[in-house]
Amino acid sequence: MVDLRTHYMGLVLDNPLIVASSGLTGSPEGAEKAAAAGAGAVVLKSLFEEQILAELGKESEGIDLDAYPEAEAFIYRTAWEEDSDAYLSLVRDSKQRVGRTPLIASINCVGSGNWASFASQIEQAGADALELNIAYMPNSPALSSKDIEDRVLSTVKEVRHSTKLPIEVKLGSYYSSLPHLAASISKLGANALVLFNRFYRLDIDIDAMKLVRAQPMSGGDEYYDSLRWMALLFQRAGIELCGATGIHDAQTMAKFILAGASAVQICSALYKGGWKTVGKILDDLRSLMETQGFSSVDSMRGRLSAKSTGRLEEYMRLQYIKALTGIS
Ligand SMILES: Cc1cc2nc3c(=O)[nH]c(=O)nc-3n(C[C@H](O)[C@H](O)[C@H](O)COP(=O)(O)O)c2cc1C
After folding, report:
1. Is the link from the previous residue into 196 a cis peptide, with omega within 30 of 0?
2. How far is the CA of 49 from the centre of ligand 1 (A)?
3. CA-to-CA distance for 282 and 288, rounded, in angstroms?
4. Given CA atoms 241, 245, 249, 251 in this order, what sign does their dihedral have?
């Protein structure tokens, strides 16, 4: 029998398939369905600081906030309290419904908000771990890559000090030196990195001459960047790894484990195929492991990572140099 259990952030998951944060996990019923489908863990929909800031904008329409700065603070506090109370109920109710499946709460951080105190409230509400969905969109030439990384690190530091929960940091792929950032996040005491988030995308409608939303779901061929970074970082940055984006089947999931992932997060495949997809992927993963002669996820993890193969240069290749890639 194949053993699908995996150790991730000090938790033992029955299998490495984690249902990612999305509308599917935005209610206790959704979290329960994910657990009942057989997921190894469930990440709740994020509480969005951006949403609170947007509410601040709506509530303050017609008020001159420059003249009444205390009004801004009041409206922000009220919006924050309402949204955070609702989120804590989501955590509490979901925890009751998922049984022994680990429940991961998720907060989206864009500035230095009230995260420190909120993280400890999330812990009290019963979450088993916390995901920090950190995404800063640099929009000024005055902002350096170090400025952005410092903001990421100060958020991690702030939250780490306020909770004992295991923390996974979910990042996008736009960083100049991911190994350095990963090692710095690890030194601050975060337990894992989720690579990568797939953000809201823009497109242009030429007929309507306006911006529109691009396809929100990933395709099954969008996993290459994440896979490369799993393989490059495994046991080289002092932090556990969780794969994300473009993982739609057992084949791709197996590739991530071979590259070094302790677990993977899946979202679009579940929107497309429904909850039965969880069982199908896990059944397929079991058969694939049997065929390849792996008795456990632990024995498979990292087998094709840069560290294990010792062929770092192959994982670093970026250019189509004919002598190296065979493609001219
Ligand atoms: C409709 C939708 C809502 C999402 N909401 C969140 C969210 O609240 N927090 C978050 O960290 N990621 C969110 N994501 C990103 C997913 O968790 C996931 O990282 C991304 O879709 C890539 O995985 P996939 O290729 O399996 O879809 C959302 C994705 C979709 C499609």
Report:
1. yes
2. 16
3. 10
4. negative
Residues with a CB atom less than 6 Å from ligand 1 = 20-23, 45-46, 106, 133, 170, 197-198, 216-218, 244-247, 265-269
Q: Identify which of 38-42, 84-88, 110-114 has the greatest average pLDDT.
A: 38-42
Exposed (0-12), middle (13-18) or buried (19+): which is 72, by Cβ within 10 Å?
middle
Closest protein CA for atom 30 of ligand 1 = 22
Distance (angstroms) between ligand 1 centre and the Cα of 63 equals 35
- What the block records as the tokens of 149 is 């990384």
> What is the spatial distance between Cα 256 and Cα 120, in angstroms, rounded to a whole number?
32
State both tokens at 160: 């780490």
pLDDT at 116: 75
Testing ligand 1's pocket by substitution, the residue of 21, 48, 196 carrying the most ligand atoms inside 8 A of its CB is: 21
Tell me what percent of the residues of the chain surpass a pLDDT of 70. Answer: 90
Domains of the chain: 6-303 (3.20.20.70)
- Mean pLDDT throughout 190-200? 97
> What distance in angstroms lies between residue 328's CA and the mean position of ligand 1's atoms?
37
- Residue located nearest, by CA, to atom 14 of ligand 1: 22
pLDDT for 53 = 64
pLDDT in tens, 144-162: 999 999 999 999 999 999 9
Helix (H, G, I), strand (E, B) or coil at 107: strand
What are the pLDDT digits (tens) for 236-252? Answer: 999 999 999 999 999 99
3-state secondary structure of 8: strand
69 vs 14, residue with greater confidence: 14
Q: Which residue's alpha carbon is nearest to atom 6 within ligand 1?
A: 22
C-beta of residue 16 within 8 angstroms of C-beta of residue 258: no
Q: Does 327 score more than 70 pLDDT? A: yes
